[in-house]
């Protein structure tokens, strides 16, 4: 069986119009996803749509401007995947890369 090249990924802003469509399409391709959204209600709504195609995803509800966002994200990723193949950012404001520096040193 051929391995899906996009097997593990994160979508930031998955609850918007474009994010929800991409999330659903990737779920149909049997991709393992962590879906980020600021609104828990919208994440649940998206999760229910994705469950109809028999795929389970990991939901990550968080405000990306919160000071603990990077630490919480790294914890979520580490608990689910051994690697990330892709990341899609569909939010207008994103944390600075320096936020990750303390975790890589």
Which features characterize this protein?
105 residues, alpha/beta, Rossmann fold, 4-stranded parallel sheet
Percent of residues in beta strands? 15-25%
Give the overall form: globular
- What is the topology, as strand order, of the major beta sheet? 3-2-1-4
Query: Regions with pLDDT < 50 over 5+ consecutive residues?
Result: none
Number of strands: 4
Question: What is the N-to-C succession of helices and strands?
Answer: EHEHEHEH
**Which structural category do the helix and sheet elements fall into?**
alpha/beta
Our measurement of the CA-to-CA distance between the termini, rounded to an integer number of angstroms, reads 38 Å
The Rg value, from CA coordinates, equals 14 Å
Q: What is the fourth-level CATH superfamily?
A: NAD(P)-binding Rossmann-like Domain
Q: Could you please say which CATH topology applies here?
A: Rossmann fold
Helix content: 40-55%
Nearest-integer average pLDDT: 83
What does this structure look like?
The model has no long low-confidence stretch (mean pLDDT 83). The chain is 41% helix and 18% strand. By secondary structure, the chain is of the alpha/beta class. The protein has helices spanning 17-28, 40-51, 69-80, 98-104; strands spanning 8-12, 32-37, 58-61, 86-89. It has one domain: Rossmann fold. It is globular and about 35 Å long. The longest helix has 12 residues, at 17-28. A 4-stranded parallel β-sheet has the order 3-2-1-4, sandwiched between helices.
